[in-house]
Design brief:
Blueprint: H1 10-29, H2 33-47, H3 52-57, H4 60-72
Length: 88
């Protein structure tokens, strides 16, 4: 198995969630919305696997950012990103 194939647990999972949220925030600050959406989706998927105790160990600033961006800018009520234009 490669390093990516091994599922993360415990402290490594918490660190990975924090890292992904920080990467998404850096993409957001750089106005790279597509990359931000992808990283946010990955971070949210990992975040949803955490237990309540593990979620409490994530810094509140990161949790608030993830929730705020998830609901306000990437929620179901928002328009989906446009697909690449097809040339005729």
């Amino acid at each position: 198995m490669t390093k990516q194939d091994i599922p993360l647990t415990g402290e490594a999972l918490i660190k990975e969630v924090c890292r992904r949220i920080r990467v998404a925030r850096s993409y957001w600050d750089a106005h790279n919305n597509a990359a931000c959406r992808g990283e946010r989706d990955r971070a949210l998927a990992l975040y949803n696997t955490l237990t309540k105790e593990q979620k409490d160990r994530i810094p509140q600033v990161l949790r608030v950012w993830l929730r705020y961006r998830s609901e306000k800018y990437f929620g179901a009520h928002r328009t989906l990103p446009k697909s690449a234009r097809k040339s005729k």
